[in-house]
Amino acid sequence: MHELFESRVYLIAGRTDPLAGKNLIREEDLYGRTLMVGGGSPPALKAVQNRLINSGKIRYFNSPDHDTTLTNVAAGRGICLAPGFLNDHSGQFAWIPYDCEETFSWDRRPSVTAFLDILKGLYREAVAFPL
User: Fold this and answer.
1) Which residues have C-beta within 8 Å of that of residue 109, sequence separation ≥ 6?
2) Are residues 14 and 74 in contact, defined by beta-carbon separation less than 8 angstroms?
3) What are the tens digits of pLDDT across the range 43-73?
């Protein structure tokens, strides 16, 4: 059984992008690049994006949603920062950890917590009494 996690911020780039070979992306690695922002970004991601935009050292444009962003990354129009839990592990893109303090936690609404407690209980029962 695995507890839900906190996800970090990742840079999404094309597999042939020069940044794809890095193990960790820092702010200065993005200077001179074009970053896609928007698309319903959560507050933690908006904070990171705003820091980059306010540096004045990157170009950016708004992207309406994650699918459009991935299409633009594939077309070479820019790069993107995103929560790691969006990674589909298809291998189509490079997902490189971005060096920042912001993270994304799982949804802690009471209804979600109650649902997860039920699922964990069912899992524990299934493991204790396998078919």
Assistant:
1) none
2) yes
3) 889 999 999 999 999 999 999 998 999 999 9
13 Cβ contact partners less than 8 Å away, ≥ 6 residues apart? 19, 20, 73, 79, 93, 94, 96
Predicted TM-score of the model (pTM): 0.79
**What DSSP assignment string belongs to 93-125?**
EEEEEB--S-EEPPP--HHHHHHHHHHHHHHHH
* Rounded CA Rg of the chain: 18
Q: What is the block-wise mean pLDDT of the chain (131 residues), using blocks of 10 residues?
A: 71 97 97 90 91 96 92 96 91 97 79 85 86 62
Q: Is the distance from CB of 58 to CB of 35 less than 8 angstroms?
A: yes
Residue with tokens 């444009």: 61
